[in-house]
Design the sequence.
């Protein structure tokens, strides 16, 4: 195999692994009882950790690909139209926020903050979809969603930070 | 886009602001990984939409049994929905003609004129009456469909509402006795003793709701909410997913205020409340839930009883009976029945919930205290 | 990764989060207060003939005639009532102004009913 093809294969494999990981998290977090009354399908946003990790390790474009793939495949596994809407809104906004922050601040921002911002954007996306489906009363869940976003984002950010160095080192060793 | 060959050999792409714009433009115009991903996403979206389709609900309001009725259906096309609603509403009309105590010539009306003779009545009346007598037996007469004379005497809900004298009450009470009435389903007749009158107000709406549910179910409707002036019957859950959310009317508040939320899928909920119909005289409130054993409005310490059951006919009769029986006996009654739950609201603002409803009922008004049984 | 020192980006995110939390608090209060536009539905002879959004209703009176009687329904921004009816008991008129979802004024003899419904409320119906 030419170096080019090898590179492509490596890239595809990497992306596939990331997507699989994201998908696993996506399914796992749908088991969490985050259900707000009257709004089924709301998620914590753990799968966005993979989006962030991909962004840090590879790049924002591939991170977006992984995120979109994860949502598409995940919704085929269950969740219906509503679940898909929540997931795609959350994933896209999350990616946009994280990628945007990375562009704006480059190294001038901690991973944890990026992750928190991503989680906030994720929940904002979910809230927007909830308003479309169920009306303005869901806005009363906004504070709870914010707090949960900060908590999830921080936790996720810490994990990603912990995992990142070893992963980069492992790759360098290849 | 500047690409760096980092020391570990991986091509990392760093984004500048211009790069960001370029990325978006490329994604929109050039074929490649991104477009393929987007295509997959679009396809998956279409598939997911088909799987979780929630077509627009169809709703109709009407007016029967002296109250406003609203039926909402979804889960089929709108043409099928409208056809189903047509069937439901014409059934309501039919039932009103047969079961109403105020419609001249109705089965209930003619039954009262029978004076000891068997009267031929419709299948609906037969079914409702036999179910009513079953509950009369089960509740020891707390629910009694022959309560007509007492209801007419008090006249609660009409202009002639008044406090009758003790003699009048005793006389009327003597006529209230389900054991002296009977139903012959084979012959298609029902009989009341001389002077007795039937009043199916405590069970007819439940029966109508059950009929609506049956018609909608046969029409293949997957999600429906039938609201007969506060009697709720559901098919499936909300079209967008999740159970139907039913508010519990605040017995001390205005119409439309609710103190808690009940989550129901495929079930019914019926409330009997002291606040529904009453009149006040000399500072005393007389409500419409008359206790056949005393002849007076039931004074059981309750202001409302809500029954959740698979059948609205049963729930309707049980809510009246449980109100009259009071919390202790009422709860015992409900607990002895399968798939039946109840929420009692007392005069001192306690909300008692049977164990089987603990998961699906959430109290949202903290001026009440929740007691689980 | 351990909290070495705060960088510009961290400050930005912190500020945004704080602002959002404040906005959320305010929004939540507002959302609790209003659950959508109340809508009045007028039902004559069993069919809904008029659906009027009460939020932007003009002050006016409309007359509805059913097979059994006539009713005058008065609208004002935010509320509605049966102003006059030719039924003997006048219970419908005595009900007075209604404005909250779930409330209704009903003329039983005249077969005219006015029901107020919320646009999208937290509950789908009220049992009671």
Sequence:
């Amino acid at each position: 195999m030419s170096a080019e093809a090898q590179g492509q294969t490596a890239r595809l494999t990497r992306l596939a692994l990331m997507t699989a990981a994201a998908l696993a998290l996506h399914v796992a977090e749908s088991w969490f009882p985050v259900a707000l009354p009257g709004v089924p399908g709301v998620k914590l946003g753990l799968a966005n950790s993979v989006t962030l990790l991909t962004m840090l390790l590879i790049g924002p474009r591939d991170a977006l690909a992984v995120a979109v793939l994860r949502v598409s495949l995940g919704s085929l596994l269950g969740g219906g139209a509503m679940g898909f809407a929540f997931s795609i809104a959350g994933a896209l906004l999350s990616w946009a926020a994280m990628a945007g922050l990375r562009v704006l601040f480059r190294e001038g921002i901690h991973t944890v903050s990026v992750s928190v911002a991503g989680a906030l954007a994720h929940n904002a996306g979910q809230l927007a979809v909830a308003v479309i489906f169920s009306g303005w009363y869901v806005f009363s869940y906004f504070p709870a969603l914010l707090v949960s976003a900060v908590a999830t984002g921080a936790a996720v950010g810490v994990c990603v930070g912990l995992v990142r160095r070893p992963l980069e080192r492992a790759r360098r060793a290849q | 886009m500047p690409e760096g060959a980092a020391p570990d050999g991986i091509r990392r792409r760093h984004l500048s602001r211009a790069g960001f714009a370029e990325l978006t433009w490329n994604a929109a115009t050039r074929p490649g990984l991104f477009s393929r991903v987007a295509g997959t996403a679009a396809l998956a979206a279409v598939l997911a939409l088909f799987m979780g389709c929630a077509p627009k609900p169809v709703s109709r309001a009407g007016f029967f049994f002296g109250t406003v009725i609203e039926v909402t259906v979804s889960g089929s096309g709108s043409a099928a929905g409208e056809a189903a609603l047509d069937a439901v509403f014409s059934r309501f009309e039919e039932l009103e003609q047969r079961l109403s105590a105020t419609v001249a010539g109705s089965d209930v009306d003619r039954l009262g004129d029978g004076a000891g003779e068997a009267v031929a009545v419709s299948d609906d009346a037969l079914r409702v009456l036999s179910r009513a007598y079953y509950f009369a037996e089960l509740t020891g007469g707390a629910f009694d469909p022959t309560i007509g004379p007492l209801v007419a005497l008090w006249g609660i809900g009409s202009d002639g509402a008044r406090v009758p004298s003790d003699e009048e009450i005793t006389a009327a009470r003597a006529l209230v006795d389900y054991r002296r009435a009977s139903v012959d389903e084979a012959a298609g007749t029902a009989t009341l003793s001389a002077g007795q009158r039937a009043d199916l107000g405590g069970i007819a709406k439940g029966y109508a709701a059950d009929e609506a549910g049956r018609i909608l179910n046969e029409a293949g409707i997957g999600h429906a909410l039938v609201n007969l002036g506060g009697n709720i019957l559901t098919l499936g859950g909300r079209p967008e997913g999740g159970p139907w959310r039913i508010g519990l009317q605040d017995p001390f508040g205005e119409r439309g205020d609710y103190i808690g939320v009940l989550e129901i899928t495929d079930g019914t909920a019926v409330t009997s409340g002291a606040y529904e119909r009453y009149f006040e005289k000399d500072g005393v409130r007389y409500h419409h839930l008359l206790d056949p054993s005393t002849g007076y409005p039931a004074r059981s310490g309750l202001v409302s009883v809500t029954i959740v059951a698979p059948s609205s006919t049963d729930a309707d009769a049980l809510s009246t009976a449980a109100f009259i029986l009071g919390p202790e006996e009422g709860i015992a009654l409900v607990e002895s029945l399968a798939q039946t739950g109840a929420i009692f609201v007392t005069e001192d603002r306690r909300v008692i919930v049977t164990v089987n409803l603990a998961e699906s009922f959430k109290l949202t008004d903290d001026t009440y205290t929740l007691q689980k049984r | 990764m351990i909290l070495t020192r705060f960088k510009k980006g961290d400050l930005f995110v912190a500020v945004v989060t704080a602002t959002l939390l404040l906005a959320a608090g305010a929004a939540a209060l507002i959302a609790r207060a209003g659950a959508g536009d109340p809508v009045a539905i007028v039902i004559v002879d069993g069919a809904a003939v008029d659906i009027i959004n009460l939020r932007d209703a003009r002050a006016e009176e409309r007359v509805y005639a059913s097979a059994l009687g006539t009713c005058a329904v008065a609208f004002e921004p935010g509320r509605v009532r049966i102003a006059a009816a030719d039924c003997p008991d006048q219970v419908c008129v005595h009900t007075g102004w209604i404005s909250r979802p779930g409330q209704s004024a009903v003329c039983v003899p005249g077969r005219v009913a006015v029901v107020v419904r919320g646009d999208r409320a937290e509950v789908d119906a009220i049992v009671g």
Notes: The mean pLDDT of chain A is 82.
